[in-house]
Amino acid sequence: MSAYDVIVIGSGPGGYVCAIRCAQLGLKTACVEGRETLGGTCLNVGCIPSKALLHASHSLHEAEHNFVRMGLKGKTPSVDWKQMLAYKNDVIDQNTKGIEFLFKKNKIDWLKGWGSIPEPGKVKVGDETHEAKAIIIATGSDSTSIPGVEVDEKMVVSSTGALELAKPPKKLVVIGAGVIGLELGSVYKRLGAEVTVVEFLDHITPGMDAGTAKAFQRTLKKQGLTFILGAAVQKVETTRTKAKVTYKLRKTDEEATLDADTVLVATGRAPFTDGLGLEALGVTMSDRGMVQTDGHYATNIKGIYAIGDCIDGPMLAHKAEDEGMAVAEILAGKAGHVNYGVIPGVIYTHPEVASVGATEEVLKDQGRSYKVGKFSFMGNGRAKANFAGDGVVKILADAETDRILGCHIIGPAAGELIHEICVAMEFGAAAEDIARTCHAHPTYSEAVREAALACGDGPIHS
Ligand code: NAD
């Protein structure tokens, strides 16, 4: 038996970042992971591999649609699926090995196997039991399905199976117009599939600023994705060669079917805490299976903490990372803290969509008076040069104080641009602060500044 200051269960972005910060702060740390490789869902079957396929398929799109316009002639590349998957797996490999290196560098023990907590202060991995002053549950989440739909990871797949298909689909039905459905749906659209997205709500991307969601849907439609909104999927039936998706239109109760060779189920994720023994320990959970924690990530059982997807809040890798750092700091006697008002969200389609802070709908609900500064990428020289004029930056600022309350961007590199606003919001900046900051020309960032100018005396290029 070995004794640690901290044992983190789970090595996803929440867990591994937490373990590294604990070690950096002088705590003797171990991390339990049952997968063959470190990094959790994000590095192995989530954020990172999907970004590789998004990059590869976008490159193909550029070659098919924009190369000739730029005077680049020659044979358009075709898809070598085996090689594309090998490239994706190589990216995974580099990233997961990177975490292994960081564990060694920071003297963190990787306890290989699935962990459970037989009693407070103890973690069992395989036949061995280890002691820890603090145990941190960072076991993440797992994809869920809906009644009548059985995921076989071959024809009916979750995001995990969608990253390992035997071949790119010809006819793909995506259930759920959330982040996963739209990112992977656009990958396979660009690789030549006919893609139909069936969504329960009457709009895509729940929680997104409504105007931005509408504009995003228009953009995806232009790219050839078909949407069936307000439709609840009832069941998916499969034969050896094809799947039949039955859905019901919520307004009329009318039923219809769609044929597909692949169905992606992207209807959300649920916290994953199976096998930890939390029930026997008496750890308080919510009805939806989330571990309940206080403001310091402590559960109701002394010495047991939880972070990331298995507690409340958005299921985002970077939210988990920040919680991981915060709880490490708290355990080391420092003032760990996460500003939940400034957590960006990014959808990595092309163009990207990024947002932070309040949506217009939230501000209206709160009865706040606000102003809107908008700027289209059509007025941005760099975007024009790069065929990336489709998109807009929208900044929401307090009508009286000019303080930035939120920002919603569709456009090139939106996932990078949003961080200027995150920093500004962290410092309590006004839109005028961004408007008065010199921005290099020609950059996409100028569009952010122009939107800030639009909150005041007006943008220059529109
Ligand atoms: P989601 O919750 O974002 O979207 C699921 C969608 O499925 C919703 O719009 C819902 O209305 C719809 N739906 C549910 N039941 C349905 C039915 N019977 N018929 C039709 N539609 C139905 O879930 P997701 O896209 O699976 O993502 C899961 C989590 O992972 C989210 O929290 C997401 O933020 C996170 N994630 C984030 C990123 C990123 O940040 N880029 C990438 C991947 C996943």
Folded structure, characterized:
- This protein has 462 residues and is of the alpha/beta class.
- It folds into three domains: 3-143 and 270-338, FAD/NAD(P)-binding domain (3-Layer(bba) Sandwich), CATH 3.50.50; 156-267, FAD/NAD(P)-binding domain (3-Layer(bba) Sandwich); 342-454, Enolase-like, domain 1.
- The chain is built from 14 helices and 22 strands.
- The strands form five sheets. Strands 1, 2, 3, 4, 5, 6 and 17 form a seven-stranded mixed β-sheet that branches. A five-stranded parallel β-sheet has the order 8-15-9-10-11. The chain has a five-stranded antiparallel β-sheet with strand order 18-19-22-21-20, with helices on both faces.
- A hairpin with a 4-residue loop joins strand 12 (231-238) and strand 13.
- Helix 3 packs parallel to helix 6.
- The longest helix is centred in the first third of the chain and has 25 residues, at 81-105.
- It is globular, with a radius of gyration of 23 Å.
- The protein binds nicotinamide-adenine-dinucleotide.
- Nicotinamide-adenine-dinucleotide binds at residues 146, 175-181, 198-201, 206, 232-233, 266-269, 315-316, 345-348.
List the helices and strands and how they pair.
Blueprint: E1 3-9, H1 13-24, E2 29-33, H2 40-45, H3 47-65, H4 81-105, E3 109-112, E4 115-119, E5 122-125, E6 128-137, E7 141-143, E8 156-157, H5 159-162, E9 171-175, H6 179-190, E10 194-198, H7 210-222, E11 226-228, E12 231-238, E13 243-249, E14 255-260, E15 262-265, E16 269-271, H8 278-281, E17 304-306, H9 317-331, E18 345-347, E19 352-357, H10 360-365, E20 370-376, H11 381-385, E21 392-398, E22 404-411, H12 414-426, H13 431-435, H14 445-454
Helix pairs in contact: 1-9, 3-4, 3-6
This protein binds nicotinamide-adenine-dinucleotide.
